[in-house]
Amino acid sequence: MNKTIIPIVLEAVSKDGEIGHTTAPHINTQDEPQRRLKNAAYIEKKLLHYTGKAIADYNMIQKGDRVMVCLSGGKDSFTLLKLLKILRQRSGNKFEIFSFTLDQAQPGWNDSHLRNWLASQDIPHEILTRDTYSIVKEKIPEGQTYCSLCSRLRRGIIYRYAKEQGFTKIALGHHRDDLIRTFMMSVLYNGDIRSMPPKLLTDDKSHIVIRPLAYCQENDIRTYAAVQNFPIIPCSLCGSQENLARKRVGKLIDELAKENPKVPSNLLHALSSIKPSQLMDTDYWDFKNLEKELQKEFHSDTGNSHLEALELPIED
Questions:
Q1: How far is CA 31 from its chain centroid?
Q2: Which helix (H) or strand (E) holds 257?
Q3: What is the CA radius of gyration of the chain?
Q4: What is the CATH topology of the domain spanning 32-270?
Q5: 0.90 exceeded by pTM
Q6: Are 76 and 214 in contact (CB under 8 A)?
Q7: What would the mean pLDDT of 214-240 be, rounded to a whole number?
Q8: Is 18 helix (H, G, I), strand (E, B) or coil?
Q9: What is the pLDDT of residue 140?
Q10: Residue 292: its pLDDT value, please?
Q11: How many angstroms separate the first and last alpha carbons of the chain?
Q12: Domain residue spans in the chain?
């Protein structure tokens, strides 16, 4: 029996079935506060729909799961935590959520408003202080990006805490635009075809990481976070680096989307529509032995049972 908790998946808001191409309904009113409330309800409905769809599509959450939501203090993780709280209530509280925040000892860090918000939402939580900021500043020369080392240190602490506390899932706030930007960065800068999977088993098989916002647009999350007035805590590390490759790739995708609005959703769809025979990876497609497949058909038609491989010199 499938134990996946499929929340109340709301009515699709896209008539053409594309993820991320919808227009807010026109509201005939001169009352600005009322207009904002209706638009906020629409955005929440849309985000809940795509979050519920991602959870169902990838079997992210099962009955009895203890889900640790990583709350960084940014708009994405706040939105994820709020949406999962709503979906948990709609599921009849069939799974648990717990908020985990890592205080990396960055200058100016102030989590007092975050603590008050968590208390007002009645969400169990912990804010753990570990000084990774000093390590990153010491190890990475000025002018180079901090993201790689910072994320490795943060990930190690998160995984260790989740294991010690017995959480069955670790939920991260990466959204559609994170997935497609990572995909483009991997292709353009690393020569790899990879991204952020919506559901991941860690290399040591100790944790399952989920990304329930995988179908959600950043613009919708930004709007929702503003309406909800989340107590955002800015990052003084990556937030201070304006020339990150990720930002340049994001601008490239945005420019292409001006010509063809379906570009972002097409990139997302490409991640779930791999065709190994149309690529060049010999680990996933047996190019060298395609003749054997041809040979089967050739045998049946001609009775010829032998095709000899031709050795060609690589150099003269």
A1: 36
A2: helix 245-259
A3: 24
A4: Rossmann fold (3.40.50)
A5: no
A6: no
A7: 87
A8: coil
A9: 79
A10: 85
A11: 63
A12: 32-270, 280-305
Residue 73, both tokens: 């203090």
Of residues 48, 60, 55, the one with CA closest to residue 86 = 48
What are 222's two structure tokens? Answer: 């930004």
User: Where does residue 159 rank: exposed (0-12), middle (13-18), buried (19+ CB within 10 A)?
Assistant: middle
The CB density around residue 248, as the number of other CB atoms within 10 Å, is 13
Q: pLDDT for 7-53, tens place per residue?
A: 444 333 333 344 444 444 454 545 777 777 788 899 999 999 999 99
Helix/strand/coil for 199:
strand
Q: What are the C-alpha distances in Å from 32 to residues 41, 163, 223, 227, 246? A: 14, 48, 16, 13, 36
Contact 212, 38 (CB under 8 A): no
CB-count exposure of residue 100 (10 Å: 0-12, 13-18, 19+): buried
Give the model's pLDDT for residue 237.
Answer: 60
Tell me how far CA of residue 280 lies from CA of 27, 275, 292, in angstroms.
51, 10, 19
